Amino acid sequence: MLQFQKTAISAEDEAYLHLQREIRLGRYAPGQRLVPDVVAAEIGTSRMPVRGALRRLASEGLVEIRANRGAVVRGLNQQEMLEVFEMRSVLEGLATRNAVENMGPEHIRRLSNMLEQLDQGANEDLDWTAAHREFHEYLCSFCKQPRLLNQISELHSVVEPYMRLWAAQPGRVLRVRESHQELIDALQTRDAARCEAAMRQHVLNTVPALQAFLEQGG
């Protein structure tokens, strides 16, 4: 059997996906140093692809390259968190505005089914943060604008570790159905301006509770 060696690009992609996933899931905490040799040993590659992956993650705001410490996981302060959510509200609002014209009843029904699973899984054994992100990205995907979708995905990745901690607070009750049903109701009107406004407000509604969580040391 022929065996093919990994190219430098494929090895870098593997390192990039590994690091991005671990940061999004909160397994690498803000401020944690990422040592290329250690990461390379974890995934069975050399350190050069890891260095390339770290540079890519730095360009996306997930990692910071420091002169004396090398690469560290980048954390967000409250002002930066607000900035990310304001950017999300504008970009996801635009995506929703452009998506509605490409959506049919079957797509809105699927969103309703996804909402049902989110609502049922809010207090059950469900990766709620991943399912919530899937809901948003499925809705936005109908805008059919790859550059816009890529920007939205990067912003989700930046805040995902904080969303996970926030959603996992003991005793927290997630307003899943009410807040997301407003989006579905807007989509059913097929009014592009109303859909954009609903998404923008939906994203911004998360900010006060998330900032309060950060103030408490979350």
Automatic annotation (TrEMBL):
Alphabetical list of SUPFAM superfamilies matching this protein: GntR ligand-binding domain-like (SSF48008), Winged helix' DNA-binding domain (SSF46785)
InterPro entries linked to this entry: GntR_C, TF_FadR/GntR_C, Tscrpt_reg_HTH_GntR, WH-like_DNA-bd_sf, WH_DNA-bd_sf
Domain called HTH gntR-type: residue spans: 9-76
CDD domains linked to this entry: WHTH_GntR (cd07377)
Signal peptide annotation: none
Superkingdom field: Bacteria
Record-level Gene Ontology MF annotations: DNA binding; DNA-binding transcription factor activity
PROSITE patterns to which the protein is assigned, alphabetical: HTH_GNTR (PS50949)
Keywords carried by this UniProt record: DNA-binding, Transcription, Transcription regulation
One Pfam family per UniProt: FCD
Protein name, entry field: HTH-type transcriptional repressor GlaR
